[in-house]
Amino acid sequence: MPEIPLPDPRWADLPLAFAVLGLALWLTLTRGDRAAVIGFTGYGLLVAVAWVRLGSVDVALTEAALGGGLMGVLLLTAVARLGSDIDQPRPSLPGDLLIGLLCLGVAAGLAVVVLGLPSSPPSLVAAVEDHQAATELGNPVAAVLIAFRAVDTLLESVVLALAVIVLWSFGADRAWEARPRALDFGEPSPALVLLARLLPPVGLIVGVHLFWTGADHPGGPFQGGAVLAAMALLVWLARLGRPPPVTDGFTRLGIVVGPLMFLLIGLAGVVLAGAFLGYPDAFTKPLILLIEAAKTLSVAVALALLVAGPPALSGALSMRRTGSTETGAKA
Amino acid sequence: MDLADGFTAIFVSLGAFFFFAGWVGLVRFPDSLSRLHALSKADNLGLGLVIIGLMPQASWPFGMLKLVALWLLGVLIGGATAQMLAGAIHLDDGREPPGGNGDFARRTSEAGRNNEPGAAH
Amino acid sequence: MTEAQIYGICGAGLVGIGLYGAILGRSALRRLLAFNLMGSGVFLVFGAIARRGGIVDGTLSDPVPQALVITGLVVAFAATALAVALLIRLAAVDREEAPPSAEPGSADAPSVATTPSAGSPSAGTSP
How far, in Å, CA of B56 to CA of B6, rounded? Predict the structure, then answer.
């Protein structure tokens, strides 16, 4: 076999970057909101490939799951409920061009900054590698998330729980006992019901595997939790189950268990290891896995509830596509 | 580039060609249903070829088995999604999907209307 | 030109495109999409910086910016979910307050004084 050298992979980066920019420009300028949302989902997947090229596979997984999958469901729900109301007239052509030029200026300034970064960049790779052995984790990103910058991750879990609470507060007062109805779209297609029966067991395994393997390989609680949330959404969309009402105790427990476990173990670390969120040497890996397991559950519950929406009475949410209140959902 | 890499290059390129052919069908065919047909057929074939091409790069046995599982999932989801899209296209054009939505779906959605989660067998 | 620079410039371009869409987007949902584009562009610039750290040290990428971006992605998703729920709720409130003849069969009586309707619809459209 003649020795053909492999081409430089950077030749693939230029078309990918152009595709990302072109798709972003298209979905900003296109007419229909639904087309823009579908384009945004495709954009999220292209950006996930860009993240792989940047060597950040964990971020690529998160972008594909959250930015592509869950965000796509969320935005399609929004388009179905909101329609394409134009609430801001197009400015005159000179104004349009001026704003375009200013935005181009912002982009150019940022590009100059990116190109002008110092040629010997500061890097924390060595620092992370030196201390990673103490956490017994093979994945450096997981070590950073759960050990070296654990406060950020703790606060993020709390932010997710708070986001669900704020989301629930958007419901009408008299709808508090009702279930979320943003995903109620009438009779599901039989193909959707088939998927909702076949995929959740597979998704459950994949989600738990993503969490478990995140200790040593790309993956982790966020990616696994996103897959689990997607399976719950699939079941709800196919009407094989319904989103829980706000008052359900298990749901509230599920949202809270992640941050609570994280906080309790962190406080225990004050006593056992001398610092908040310090892990005692003997139990480092088991504690980390316990925190991450609780976090996966909480992330899954919170993400699924964020897409399911606030509680609403039947008939309160309309389908703008048909221009009338939906008829499928009864109390 | 050794034999495995050459095999990968050839089959992934073939798969990419079929994805491109699907795009040509998307652009050139007159109505939504035929575009959907072209896209789903070509994309399934392209995916299969890409997976075959990636086989030499995966570890034996589990890497290859995971690739096959990926392909099966892709075929399942692609087929179901195409069915859903076709049903939506029929409804958009104002007609019932051919064959209706089936007794199975009616029973399932009646259970849904009576709000019995999971009561549909 | 390393791939870090290519995607860094791509991220810069995305920030510009997102800014344009956020200012001139036709509907609230489009402005929300554009805002997400801006966030995505900023994350790509982070990724470029992580990759530069990796190139220098011989690994794939610096893990600390990656962790920051993962946190940012989750928080951006939560914020988008809140914005979408707010838009849907505002549309529902606007419909309830519209003349009854406009929406036959609406189940809610227009007695929603208890819910703070955010003053004016435009208050909810800024991301």
Answer: 10
Q: Quickly count: other Cβ atoms within 10 Å of residue A205's Cβ.
A: 11
Lowest mean pLDDT among C4-13, C78-87, C92-101, C113-122: C113-122
Give the closest of A91, A106, A325 to C19, CB-based: A106
Q: Which residue has the tokens 């971020």?
A: A59
The enclosing H or E element of A318 equals: strand A318-319
ipTM: 0.91
Q: Closest Cα to residue A13, out of A44, A55, A41, A42?
A: A55
Q: How far is A6 from chain B (nearest CA, A)?
A: 6
| DSSP letter assigned to residue A3 | -
Between CA C90 and CA A170 the distance in angstroms is: 9
Q: What residues in B contact A195, CB-CB < 8 Å?
A: 76-77, 80
The candidate with the shortest Cα–Cα distance to A265, out of A298, A297, A287, is: A287
**How many Å lie between the alpha carbon of C96 and the closest alpha carbon of chain A?**
9
Question: CB–CB of B43/B19 below 8 Å?
Answer: yes
Task: Look up the pTM and report it.
Answer: 0.86
Count of structural domains, chain C: 1
- How many whole angstroms separate alpha carbon A124 and alpha carbon C57? 9
The contacts of residue A187 (CB under 8 Å, 6+ apart) are: A239, A328, B101, B105, B109, B112
State the pLDDT at residue C114. 42
| Sign of the alpha-carbon dihedral angle for A259, A265, A270, A276 | negative
SS3 state of residue C13:
helix
CATH number for position C37: 1.10.287.3510
Enumerate neighbours of A (3 or more CB pairs within 8 A). Answer: B, C
Specify the DSSP class assigned to residue A180.
B
Alpha-carbon distances of A135 from A51, A130, A149, A271, A286, rounded to whole Å: 26, 11, 13, 19, 10
Nearest to C32 by CA among A231, A77, A52, A254: A77
Domain of C64 in residue numbering reads as: 3-97
Burial A282-297 (b: 16+ CB within 10 A, else e): eebeebbbebbbbbbb
> What residue has token string 């979905």?
A27
User: Locate tokens 């007695």: which residue?
Assistant: C111
- A52-100: per-residue pLDDT in tens? 999 899 999 999 999 988 999 999 999 988 866 777 777 788 888 999 9
